[in-house]
Input
Amino acid sequence: MKTLNTLLAFLMTITVGFAQKYDDSKPYMVKTFTANTVKSLKMTTSGGSLTVVGTTDAEAKIEVYVRSNNWNGSGDNLSKEDIEERLERYELTVTQEGSSLIAYAKNKSNNWDKKSLSIAFKAYVPEKSITDLNTSGGSISVKGITENVNGKTSGGSITVRNCKNNVNLKTSGGSISADNTSGNIVLTTSGGSISATDLDGTIDLKTSGGSISLDALKGKISAITSGGSIKATELRGESMVKTSGGSIMLREIYGTLSAATSAGSIDAEILALGKSLDLNVSSGNMTVRMPFNKGITLDCTANKITRESSMNNFDGEIEKTSIRGKLNGGGIPVNLRVSTGNLTLKSL
Output
């Protein structure tokens, strides 16, 4: 009987321990505010993610999520008491100053060890809130904001959805995903890939070391990578795509286009020409499908040029390595240059 009682007491101790375990999937703190008094949002944290959702609700709120940073693989299964003890090492503020909501978290000592925490914020604010976000090591996600969005993270990913106006977000080491967003859009990463779908406006996308994927972009478009491939489908307007070390595949292109790669191929399908077409390959091959029934002024060079297209009504010179002259009376400048490689021309 004594053994049984001892076992029951032990099991009860374990049960209580589990009951007191802190559930870091739920907010540690939630603060609410009257939505029509909120015009801007500023969130800063040194180690957690930042999420912003634009709403039309009468109430704005900020949720605070606190968890172990899993330093050296330790720190799991913390109790609420453990969390509260560790929070004493942090500045943590969620408040409203005038028309601005402010969420701020910082390690007071800047010393990171096995007792450090990750503090994340999730805000639900009016759609027309000016947003300023800053995290040293977490991701940034913004959805449904129709005012200016600014933010940066030193090592996390960036996600943008259903935003308008000015969007300027930067990460030093994560990927970027943007969808259904319009306005002046600037998205920059120092070491991740970029995926952009259904964007409209002045679009500036840049990565120092990742691939770029574009689909259904309209406006003035710039997409540049220092070390990855580029794949684009349905670009409309004025587009510039460049890579220093990858291939470029372009489909359903409408309008003005400039594309260049230093060490890869270009495969382009141009459905409608704009003001000009400029394609450059330093080392690789180029294949271009385009309409040849317009007034075009051609300037093409390569190690070898293969024509799978009709070039009736052409006035100029056609050589094995160059084509220069006017097609259908001339007009839109089309400059296709391959320094080391072959060029293939095809009619649509």
